[in-house]
Amino acid sequence: MWSNNSAAPFLLTGFLGSEASHHLISIPFFIIYLSILFGNGTLLFLIWNAHSLHEPMYYFLAMLAGTDFGITLTTMPTVMGVLLLDKREIAQGACFIQSYFIHSLAIVESGVLLAMAYDRFIAIRTPLRYKSILTDSRVMKIGLGILLRGFVSIIPPILPLFWFPYCRSHVLSHAFCLHQDVMKLACADITFNRVYPVFLVAMTFFLDALIILFSYILILKTVMGIASAEEQAKALNTCVSHISCVLVFYITVIGLTFIHRFGKHAPHVVHITMSYVYFLFPPFMNPIIYSIKTKQIQRSIVHLFSVYSRA
């Protein structure tokens, strides 16, 4: 017999043992969230309005900024609710939907980084055919494919969560809902929910990382064939921003995976902190990286502020 509280709300968790300091902890979180929204929102605004940024490279960057914006809006309400308002209850349906968007957007981000690697590969290997290969319609098709992969592939493990009975503790480990966290509370056969995500991670994150690595091997081979050292440096410099974003994303993914798989005896705060680093660090860093390393974006930012300062 399943317990009568199967449909009861789940309880989110902040920093265990530091509940008295949650109000103070909420301040840096709120600042970081606002910075992420402002940074990625600015990138989206610039790419939409600046004609000089209407190129395939910046369309993919807009996808990356939009994904980071979405991840932030997905996690921010519950995290700030727990830390600032001590609002821990979340309805099961809302929890499953949040989990769906968190995981699907993570897969989308990996796909966008892969598309950006393809963009750099085309730009360096066949620069004269760059715009004829990456036409607006092809960029849109790539973007649509990335979105479909992310939002469709995560449906199979999320749907069963809606009909699983939950007769164990309803306390979750984070201030947001993750699939691996929720499924452990189910009083049902969760074999599929354990196996499918492993396959999915292998076919998305792991495969994307391998293709990105392979593309950069080919890019490096092409660059080494350029006679002028100055041209070599110029070609590689166009890849620095993307490489930095890839490293930021996959290092946090690997760190979080390592902690979950091998850090069972690590303090709870380590697991929680790594989860927040995974969801906050890449969206926070990506606009900074592109603003520092991309001259067109720097000029657009300067132009934007000069226009508003005159107004």
Question: Could you explain how this protein is built, in words?
Answer:
The protein is mainly α. The chain has a single domain (10-302), classed as Up-down Bundle (Rhopdopsin 7-helix transmembrane proteins), CATH 1.20.1070.10. The chain contains twelve helices and two strands, in the order E-H-H-E-H-H-H-H-H-H-H-H-H-H. The protein has helices at 22-49, 56-85, 92-125, 130-133, 136-153, 155-163, 179-183, 191-224, 229-237, 240-262, 268-293, 295-310, and strands at residues 10-11, 89-90. Strands 1-2 form a two-stranded antiparallel sheet. The radius of gyration is 21 Å and the shape is globular. It starts with 9 loop residues before the first strand and ends with a helix. This is Olfactory receptor. Pfam families: 7tm_4. It is found in: Cell membrane; Membrane. Its main location: membrane. The chain crosses the membrane at residues 30-48, 60-85, 97-118, 139-163, 198-219, 240-263, 269-290.
Structural class category:
mainly alpha
* Number of extended strands: 2
Instruction: Kindly state the percentage of residues in helix.
Output: over 70%
Strand content: under 5%
Largest sheet: 2 strands, antiparallel
Identify the CATH homologous superfamily: Rhodopsin 7-helix transmembrane proteins
User: Which stretches are low in confidence, meaning pLDDT under 50 for 5 or more residues running?
Assistant: none
Which oligomerization state do the chains in this entry correspond to? Answer: single chain
CATH class: Mainly Alpha
Order of helices and strands: EHHEHHHHHHHHHH
CATH hierarchy: architecture: Up-down Bundle
